[in-house]
Each structure stands twice: as structure tokens, then as C-alpha cells.
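INPUT
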Amino acid sequence: MELNYSTSDIAFRDEVRAFLNESLDESLAEKVALDLPLSKAEYENWHALLHAKGWLATNWPKQFGGAEWGVVQRHIFEEECAMANAPRIVPFGLAMLGPVLHKFGSAEQQAYWLPRILNGDDWWCQGYSEPGAGSDLASLKTQAVRDGDHYVVNGQKTWTTLGQFANMIFCLVRTDNDAKAQEGISFLLIDMDDPGIEVRPIVLIDGSVEVNEIWFSDVRVPVENLVGEENKGWTYAKYLLTHERTNIAGVGFARAGLAAAKRLARNEFSAGKPLLENALFAARVAEIEIDLMAMATTNLRIVSSAAQGQAPGIESSMLKVKGTIIRQAINDLTRRAAGRSAMPFASEVLEHSQLPSDPLRAGRVSSEYFNNRKLSIYGGSNEIQRQIIAKDALGGGR
Amino acid sequence: MNYNLSDEQRMLQDSLRRMLADGDDSAWSQLAEQGVFSALFGEEHGGLGGSGFDLAVVFEELGRAGSVDPVIESSLLCGRIIAELASEKHAALIERVVAGDVQLAFAHSEATSRYDLNRVEMHVSNHQLNGRKSVVINADAAEFLLVSARSGGEVDERSGIALYLVPADSAGITRFSYDLTGGGQAADLIFENVQLSEHELLSTNALTAIEQANAAAIVAQCAETLGAMETATSMTCEYLRTRTQFGRPLAMFQALAHRVSDMLIELEQARSAVILAAGHLDADTKTRDLHLSAAKNLLGRIGKQIAEESIQMHGGIGMTDEYRLGHFAKKIVMADHRYGDVDFHLERFISLSAAGNPL
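OUTPUT
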């Protein structure tokens, strides 16, 4: 057994660190650290910067213009980016649609859409969830009816992340009402500028606007935008959802968050001493740190076996559950570390405060705590993940 | 033994619940009409209540309705401090407080004081105030600020904390205002050579009075959080009964049903903690504080559980600003940041019980 990265892995990690140190703007990293909303341009610039470096489509095969990194390299890269508070790479085109098109797209679709993802021509969003189809995704009702060379789409999608910036959406739509729930679903690529599409922003409890409702009313979609075969969309969706997600545990985010919590607790005072020196608070920090050390190793064990060719199964679900529990515990701790200063409602911060410290900046810890309640809800809720783990161990038995 | 409310308390509870359920919002004047403010004060100050249980009744109802009115901070905390410290010259103001006819703000906490009431850096010299106060709740609406400042002693000394009743529009006060997570409003205040006149002085040694009023505020805050948790829990039950996934109501999924059971069990724990706190509000200081810290710690822990579980079991809809659950979840969680959090009260409980206080 060898617990550490190889020499070449470490050399790669150092290269990534040097790149981030040089290329990541400090004020942008600070925005990310405060979990403030980024502008479309800020996302696009980061995307372009990585593309220029050749570090964008790290999971794509070389034949499609990707870097085709191994799973260890990708893990290192994602973790370093998270720890440096780099903007997240918007995953819908690169990490989600890309692999589906690689495997199930036609040659024409691959030739047209893939380069546009890489060079940032298209911003994709995901049309999966519906008001009545959340955890039970297969009960989705958005209809696509064939009419000549088009599908006519009617229905509503929801929780569409950053849909306000997107010009394209990949959607699961029902094309056969008589088949079993999973068997009448197709995978469509839809232009957001088409007549009949309306994007309605959803304001979340922290005041942020990152998810949207997307309404479809007689939207005409050319049949060449069907991916794969009609009524086989569920297979592609599952492929997309189970597509190897090495970063699902969010170890890098957790490390960055814990470091921020400690920084805050060093500057916050309790009975005249830094809060971090308070035994009770220090114990709470330590427990989370211990959890995180173990989870990081669980994650590396899974990365390592994936590198040896074993596809992760329930391990992804385990990492999702534990990873979100730890990250939410860090958000909780950080909020509490701020004391009374956590109270200001801060959907933004002041760029230039006349005050020695900006109360809104301090209040971000609460916004982030509430916003990150989403971690255990989205991407397959933790209840769904637990069901997957239990089913694997117990079978269908009751 | 009798855990029932008095007839008067039950009547107040009923009428308040009806009024808050009917009204679009809990307008201040309507609260006054219902007798909310006079219930916060004893007869010696012209009120009709003032006991821990009077507070518990009022604030549980305000919490159930999700009220964002600063009744605790303005009327109870500031009102009781003034009632305790004020002399004849402030009789008219006390009358206005009990009638719900004035808004106040407590400018006490500072950047490094956290939850400690004895830690005051701001100083007064040559009858002038200089310094900064943090997260002064209700500062925008307040007609008067209750401002603490050191007339002497070290930064954390119990003695030497003076208290002034300063018109909020006094020259030299810069106000930086913002909304609060969970509702309400506050401000950071910077005092620069704010000139004090003799009649603005309430006390040169105010800490004991501040602690007494703060104790009442803790009872009220716990009761308000209990009310908000009742609403969050019943909203969650209702959602699980009606929301269908995989062809059946979520209520049929045992993993969720058992978590609701835990919420209901903890809710009764919280109710008992509030009763214990309310019943010991007028006990000797140590006994009082031991029970208050127990309640505030427990309410903080249960509050986190109920707020987080309510959101989780609602799923995405629980995260939206439009749906009322989020408002209650924010109120519940952010209550932990007022009058001492889970850890502050855990430490205080440990030190008080180590001092040999029998349970």
C-alpha cells in the first residue's frame, strides 16, 4: 500500500498550483470564497482561460479535443481548483452533455456541438426536473409530439441552474405516453431562443437567483436535435447521471471551507480571546477535520481503484452523502463562528465600505449556510443515495 | 402541579392567534390593541402581565405566525431596561413603552463583544460618546437608542458600564443599515463626539439591569422559536401528506416518517424547556440563568434539526423565497445568533452547574 501520490502526480499538482497562482485573479477568488454570484462574463473568461491552457475538457477523449486525463490527474486538478477558490467550471456542457454526445450522438451532432462547447459558443443548461418529478425523475410530463420534421414541446422544467445565462438546453421529454415510465422518454437538444420558451427566475432563501423555471409552449424542435433513438432517453440520462463523478465528495470545497472557518475563528473574539482558542469551538473544528481526513482518503481509495479500471458503484453515493454532510457541517460551524455578525442578510456585499469592516460581508456566512442546504437535495437527494446504498446491501428484501 | 395557562393567558393566546391568522401582517397597532405590550410588564410599571408565562404565551404566538416585528428587542429588552433604571423624569416614556407607542433599539454589542454583555469598549469622556456598535436591531425605526459606554473600568469589568437614552437622530451618529436574515432590520452605528446631556443618563452602573432584561429576552426568544418550529413542523407534515413521488405520498416512506417523529418528539422537549425557563425567570440569578441557558442551548440544537429537516424533506421547494417554510427556517436558525448561541449557553450552563446549583 502506498498512501501518497506518485512523484509525477505531485509534479502535476505543483504545476496546477503554479498555474492557479498565476492565472486566478485575487478578487475573483475572493468572490468565489464568499459564495457570491458570478457574472456570465466571469464564468466565460475562466472557461476561455482554461481552454487556452488545454485544461478545460479534462475528461474528454483526445479525438473530440479533450485532454483525456486519467482519473487521478482530474481529481488533483479539481481539488486544487476548489482549494484555490477558482470559479467552478459550468458542468452542463463539458461534464454532462459532452460524454453523452461522445457515446450516443451522431457524427453530425458531434462535429457541430462539441467544438461549440469547447470554445464557449454555447452555454448549456439541464432540463431534467419538473414540479411533479424531482427524486422521481421518470414521472416527468413534458411532452414532445412529432409533427413532420419537428417535435412540438409543451411542459415545464424547474431547478434549472444558471438557465438565465444559457442559450441551449438538453431536455428529457416524454415521446410515448403508453410505454412504462422510463421507456417513453427521449433526449432533446433545444435552442433557448426558440419561440415559446420562457425563463422564470426562482429566488432562493438566501436571495440568490441561480435556478429557474423553464416553460415550453408549442416549441418546435428540429428532429435532428434528437440524441440517439426516440424513447431511449432514459438510458442516456442514466449514463449522464452515473457518469464517473470523481469530485462528488467535494473534498477541495470542504478544505477551502474549513480553512475559511478557521480564519474567521482566529479573528472573532470570545471572552477576549480568539474563538479558535476556545476549547469547545476548537473541539467542533477538530471533529469535522477528523471526518474530512478520513473522507479524503475514502475518496482517494475510490479514485485509485477507478484508475485501475474499476467503475465506482455505490461508492459514488457514499461520497455524495458523506461529502455533503461534512460540507454542510462546515457551513454551520462558520455561521456560528461569526456570532452576532452572522445576522445581516447579505445577498451581496459592499465593494467599498466606509466602515472598517463590512457587516454584509460577515453576513455572507449565513447566506452560504442556507444556500448550501441544496447540497443534500440536488444531484440525487441524500435520501435517494441512501436508498441506492441500502438496496445494494440488502437487495429488494423487506 | 398544574401546567395549564391561566384563563387570562389562554384568552390572550386565542385572540392573538386569531388576529395573527387573519391579518396580512402583525401591525404594531394591532398588537397593542390585543394587549401584547402590556402583557410584557408587571403592574408596578403599568402593565397587566410580566411573568415568564405571559412572555411565553405572547412570543410563541408571534413565532407561530412568523412575525418579524422587533417586539423582543424594542419593547421587551429596551422597555424593561428603561422601566428598571428610569427615574421620575422618564415616567411618560415608560407609559409609551407599555402602550406600544414607541420604538427603541439597544446599542450595546460591539465587534469584539460577541455574546458577552459585560464587554464594552465604547467610552464616554467629556460628556461625549465615541465608538462603534454592531448589529443594532431596529435602529432605523427607533426613536431612542439605549447606548452603553464605559465611564470607567477595564473592558470586561462588571462595573462602570453606563447607559444613555439618546435620540436616534442625534448629531454625530452615522448609521449603516441593512436587513436581517430571517426578517427585521439592523444597523452598525458609528458615534463621533456625540454630545450627551445630563438627562440622557439612565445609569452609571447598568449591567445588572441589562442582564435582567436580557433574561426576559431569552425566554421570549425561546418561545418565539418554539412557535416557529411548530409551524415548520406542521408545514412539513402537510407537505409529506400531499406530495406524491413514486406513486405514493411521501408520508408513506418510512425513512421520512421516522424523521418527522423525531421532530415531533424534539418539539415537546423544546416546549418543556421553554416552560422551565419561563417558570424560573423570577428565580434567584443563578437558578434563573441555569434554566435559561439550558433552554437556549436546547432550542438552538432542536432548532437546527427542525429547520434543516424541514427544508430537506420539502426538497427544492423548501429552498425558495416564495414558499413560507424558508422564512420560518431562517427565523429558527438565526435565533441562535441572538442572546447567546448554543455554545455560549452550554459553557454558561457548565459553569453554573459546576458551581453547585441543584437541578
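end of record. Residues 104 and 327 of chain B are 24 Å apart (CA to CA).
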